Amino acid sequence: MACRSRLAPVLKRVAIPSLRRSVAVINPLVSATRCISSTAPRRFRKSSPRCAGFTTDSYPEIKRDERFAQITNEHVDYFKQLLGKDSAVIDGVTGAAAEDEIEPFNLDWMRKYKGHCKLVLKPGSTEEVSKILKYCNENMLAVVPQGGNTGLVGGSVPVFDEIVVSTSRMNQIRFFDEVTGVLVADAGVVLEVADQFLAEKGYIFPLDLGAKGSCHIGGNVSTNAGGLRLLRYGSLHGTVLGVEAVLPDGTILNDLSRLRKNNTGYDLKQLFIGAEGTIGMITAVSVHCPQRSKAVNVAFLGVESYDKLLQAFREAKTQLGEILSAFELMDSQSQNIYHKVKGNTRPLDGEHPFYCLIETSGSNSEHDSAKLESFLEDLMTKEIVSDGVMAQDETQFKSLWSQREGITETLGHWGGVYKYDVSIPIKEMYQLVEDTRKRLEDAGLKDGTEESPVVDVVGYGHMGDCNLHLNIAVRRYDKKVEEALEPFVYEWISKRNGSISAEHGLGIAKKKYIGYSRNETTVGLMKQIKNLYDPVSAYSFLLPH
Amino acid sequence: MACRSRLAPVLKRVAIPSLRRSVAVINPLVSATRCISSTAPRRFRKSSPRCAGFTTDSYPEIKRDERFAQITNEHVDYFKQLLGKDSAVIDGVTGAAAEDEIEPFNLDWMRKYKGHCKLVLKPGSTEEVSKILKYCNENMLAVVPQGGNTGLVGGSVPVFDEIVVSTSRMNQIRFFDEVTGVLVADAGVVLEVADQFLAEKGYIFPLDLGAKGSCHIGGNVSTNAGGLRLLRYGSLHGTVLGVEAVLPDGTILNDLSRLRKNNTGYDLKQLFIGAEGTIGMITAVSVHCPQRSKAVNVAFLGVESYDKLLQAFREAKTQLGEILSAFELMDSQSQNIYHKVKGNTRPLDGEHPFYCLIETSGSNSEHDSAKLESFLEDLMTKEIVSDGVMAQDETQFKSLWSQREGITETLGHWGGVYKYDVSIPIKEMYQLVEDTRKRLEDAGLKDGTEESPVVDVVGYGHMGDCNLHLNIAVRRYDKKVEEALEPFVYEWISKRNGSISAEHGLGIAKKKYIGYSRNETTVGLMKQIKNLYDPVSAYSFLLPH
C-alpha cells in the first residue's frame, strides 16, 4: 500500500485487510486544541476592505430610541468611582480614550457590524455589574453586554451609543469538583482556558467551537452555542446546571446550582440560556463537564450522493453508538474552494460530491479503533462510501479536521460571504443548497465567469445535529444577490419547519426574520418575557419589542 | 469455583482469572422492561391502612380560594357537549358517576393525598384541552392536569373540588424520524409504550423509572423526571426538543420543534419542563431519543465505606467512560430490609456497609464486557471493593436490579415511610443518613425494639447524579418522628446548598419548604412567572403564590 506524504489512504478497497495496523490514536489533550490556530477569529483587522461601515448605515430602518439618555461626564464620573481603577473604564466620552481603544468593542470580528459606543465598562465582580445595570436602568442609559465578541449576528456590539459592559475582567474559575465534574466559573473565562483547566483534571468542557481561543463561556451560554460536541454531549440547556445573572434593574439572580437534579420550581436559568443578553447579563455559570476521552480517532470519507450520506450517518449511529463524537458534512464545492485557496494536497484521490468527517471519542483506544475499522469496512462493502482515510497521527488528525474547520476562512477569499446557519429536517437538508445554487444561476448571478458576483454556493455543517451552514461566496456584496437570497432562503426553511438560526442566535442580523421560525403566539409570549424583565427597555433591542 | 443457584460469584478474588468466561450480555429489549412488574406503582389499593384521609385533613392550613366557583350542572353540560361522548366525562356532580369511578383520579398511588374532585374530563385533542381551560378560566373553575398519577408529592391530584383534566385519551405517537431519533407524541402516551415503540426502531426513550408502566410522558416532562438514565442521557431539559402546551387562558403554545438546534429567541418550552402543570398543561412533546444499546451488563458490588464508594464512582467514570449507564448506591440497612421482607438469597456473602450497582450499555458486547471486567479487576486489586457479582443472564440481570428497585416497595412493610428525595454535594451525601439515624436514636424514637416507631433509616439512590433517597421506615406515622425530621432534614440540606427535591418536584408536599433550596429573589421571580401565565389563579396552587 503506497502512502502519500500527508495522509495514508487506509481505506482503499484493497487496503482493508491491513487496516488494523494503520490505526493511530490521538492524544486528546493535544487534539482538543486543534482548531485554535487555524480558525479562532481575530478580534478585528484594521482597514479591512470588508468592513461595511456603521450598522446605522446598513440598517437605516433601526432608529435610536430617544427615551434613552445621552451619556454625560457625570455618568462617566460615577462609573470611574464605582470601578475604582482607570483600566476598568474606557472613556471616549470625555476624550480620555482614543477611538482606536474603543473600536475592538464597537466592531464585531467579521467587521460587519459597527456601533457608535463611546464608553466601555469592565466590572470586576457581579456586585459591580449589578451596580452598573441599576444605575443605567435608573438613568435610562442603554447597555450591551459583551463577552469575547466572537458572535456572528451582530448581537455583541452596540448599534448606537450603548455602553458596552464587558466580562473581560471577570475571568476566575470559582469551583471544580473532581468527582462529579461540576465547574463553576466567571462569565469572562475564555472557553479554551476553561477546557485546558479541565483537561488537567481529566474532564472536558461540553462545548467546542472555532472561536474557543477568544470567546467567553458566559457569551457561549448567552448565545446557547452549539458547536462541534453537541452530537455527543447535548445542548447547554442540559449541561448548564446553574447561572448567575444580573437583571436589568440590578437584581442578582443567584442560581449557581452545582446539582444535576433540582426540581424545586421553575427552571428560570433556562430563560437566560440563548437570550443573547436581552433580559439580563450572565456573570457566572455552573456546568456539568463530562469525562475527557482517552482516545480520539478521525476518518474522512468521500460519498457519491446525499442519500448515501444519510445511510452513512444512520450506520454511524448504530455501529459507533456511544463513541461517535462528530459527523460533519462537506460538499465538493466547499472542498474545492478550500483547496483552491490553501493549495493543499487533498486527502482523497479525485473529487466526490460529498465528504464527511467522522470522529470517535472513547475510553479505550483499541476498542474504538476496532469499532471504527469495522464500521468503515462495512460502509465500503455496502458501497455507501467510495473512498476514505483515517488519521494516523496528530498531524493527520489536525489536517483532516482543517478540511472542515478551514472552510469558513477560505470562503471569504474573493471578497465576501453571505452566511446562513440553519436547521432543517435531515432528509431535505442539502436540498436547500441545491435550490439556492440553481436560483442564483437562473438569475444570472453565478455563471462561472470572473465577472459574476457569486463565486459558489456551498453547504457544510454538523450533519449529526441537522445543522447546515449555507454559505454563498461572493466577489462583492450585491443588492441583486441579496434580493435573490432573501426572503427565498427563509421561506424555504419556514415551509419545512426549520430554524433560521440553528446556533448563532438572532442578534441584529436575523431579528426581523424570527417569524419564519416562530409563530405569532410564541413571539408574543417572548415579548411578555422581555417586558417582564426589562420593562423600561434599558437593554439593547435584540429581540422583537 | 462454586456457583450458587441464582448468581455466580464471579468476582471472588480467586475467580478473577475466569471472569472472561462468565460474562453474559443481556438483550436490551428485554432488560428495558425489567422494572415493570416489580415496582410499577399500583394505581390505588382499596382499604389500605395507610391512607391518610383527605388532604384537607392533613393540611388544614390550606384553605380553598373562595374566588373559585362551585361546579354546576350547567358547567357539566358544557363539558359533555364539548367532549361529545359520555366516556370522556366522569360526572360525580350530577351523580351520574359513583365515587368509586372518581377515586382513582382523587387519590395518589401512595394513598397519601386525596381530593374532593367530582368531575374528571378526558379531552381527546389539544383543541379540546384549549376549550376546557378557556372555559374554566372564564368561569373561575379550578383545574388540575393529570397524567398517569404516579407522582410522589401530591402534585397530580386535587385538594378541594378542582376539575381533573386527564391526558389519558391523548395517547398517539405523532411522528418518528428513524435517522435522527426524534419522537413527537401526545402527552398521554405511557412511557413504557413509547419506549417499546422506540425499541422496535433501535432507539430508547432517554428516561427510565419504576413507574414506566403507568406514567405518561407529558407528566414526566411536567415533573422533569430524572430516573435511572439521567447519568447517561442527561436531563429532559436537554433531550426534550419541543413542547405543545395549553396556557390557563386556552392559548396553545405550539413549540413542537423537531430540531436539536433552534436559537431563535427565548426557549420558552423550558419553563414548562418541571413546572408541574402550574403555568400550563403539556399536551405533546418532541424528544430526541438516543440509539438503543445492543449490550447491557450489570455488576453488584460490596464496599466497606462511603469513601471507597466515592473512589469506585470516580474510577467507573474514568474506566467505563462512555458505556457507564447507572451507578446506584444502596446502604446495608436498605438491603437488610429488602431481604428481611423478600426472604431472598443475597447476591453476595455476608454483609457490607455499602453496595453499588453498576450498569454499562454499549454497542459492542465484547468490548463492554472487557471494559467492565478490567474495571472490576482493578477495583479488587486496589481493594476499593470487597466483593462483587456480575449478571450472566437475564434472570440475574433482573435479580440484581431488583436489589435496588425493590427497596421502595419493601420499606413500607411495617406500616409507613417518610420519604426524602434530595440532592446533596456528593462528598457529604451519605452523612445525612447517618446524622438522621443518630438524631432519631438520640430522641429515643429508634431503639431496636418492636415498640419504637422507627424501624430503620436507610439511604439509597442515584449516586451518579448526587441524588439520595433518604427513607425512614416506620411502624406508624408519629408526630414526634415528624418533629425530629422536619425542619432538621431541610436545614441540613440547605446548609450544604442541596436540593430538597431532586427529581420528584414540589407538589403539595414540599411547596412550603421551597425556601430551603431557593433564595427569596429566585422565589420572587418564580411568582412573577406564575402571575404572568396564570394571573387569575385558574390553576391549582402548586407553587408559592
TrEMBL record, chains A, B:
Its main location: mitochondrion. Residues 113-292 form the FAD-binding PCMH-type domain. Its cofactor is FAD. Keywords: FAD, Flavoprotein, Metal-binding, Mitochondrion, Oxidoreductase, Transit peptide, Zinc. It is found in: Mitochondrion. Catalyzes the oxidation of D-2-hydroxyglutarate (D-2-HG) to alpha-ketoglutarate. Also catalyzes the oxidation of other D-2-hydroxyacids, such as D-malate (D-MAL) and D-lactate (D-LAC). Exhibits high activities towards D-2-HG and D-MAL but a very weak activity towards D-LAC. It is an enzyme of class 1 (oxidoreductase). Gene3D superfamilies: 3.30.465.10, 3.30.70.2190, 3.30.70.2740, Uridine Diphospho-n-acetylenolpyruvylglucosamine Reductase, domain 2 (3.30.43.10), Vanillyl-alcohol Oxidase, Chain A, domain 4 (1.10.45.10). It catalyses: (R)-malate + A = oxaloacetate + AH2; (R)-lactate + 2 Fe(III)-[cytochrome c] = 2 Fe(II)-[cytochrome c] + pyruvate + 2 H(+). One of its GO terms (biological process) is malate metabolic process. One of its GO terms (cellular component) is mitochondrion. The keyword Metal-binding applies. Belongs to the FAD-binding oxidoreductase/transferase type 4 family. The keyword Transit peptide applies. This is D-2-hydroxyglutarate dehydrogenase, mitochondrial. Its EC number is 1.1.99.39.
